[in-house]
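# step 3/5: fold
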Amino acid sequence: MSHILIVYYSLFHNTENLALEIAEQTGGVLRELIPAKNYSFDYNTAAKEVRNEISRGFCPKLVSGNESIEEYQTIFIGTPNWFKTLAPPVMSFLRQHNFTDKTIIPFCTHGGGGFGQIEKDIAKECSKSIILPGIAVNGTGSPEEVTNWLETMGYKL
C-alpha cells in the first residue's frame, strides 16, 4: 500500500484532473472530498454560496473523503483557489484530522490568482507538519509541469 495520499476537492474538475496526474506520477492513493450539500453548478450561484461560507468560517460536513489518514505519511492536499483561500470542504478535512509529523504538499488550481492565501492557510491548520512547496496551476496544468515539480521534491515514481 502507498504511504502517499492525494486528497482534493473539485467542483469543475480542474483540481480533480490535477490530482489524477499527481496520483499517476507518484503512485499515491486518491481521495475526493464530497460535502453533504453540493454547490451549484452555475458559476455565479456557486461563487455567492462559497463567498458566504468562507466569510462565516463555515466547514461543511463531508459525506466522503474524511476517512482516517493514520497510515499515510505524505499527504497532497488539493483545492481550487476560491476567493484567495481553500474551498470550505478542504478546510473541513484539515480541521478534522491530526497532521502532526506528516508531510503536507499543497496544490491548487486557479483562474489567475495563484495560491492566494492557500499555502498560509494550510500551514496554519497543519502547524505541526512538514510543509513542502506546492504547485498552483492555471486550469489543470500539464503533465510536464507536474513532473518537474514532483522531481524537485523527490516524489516522482
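# step 4/5: annotate
The chain has a mean pLDDT of 92.
# step 5/5: archive (pending)
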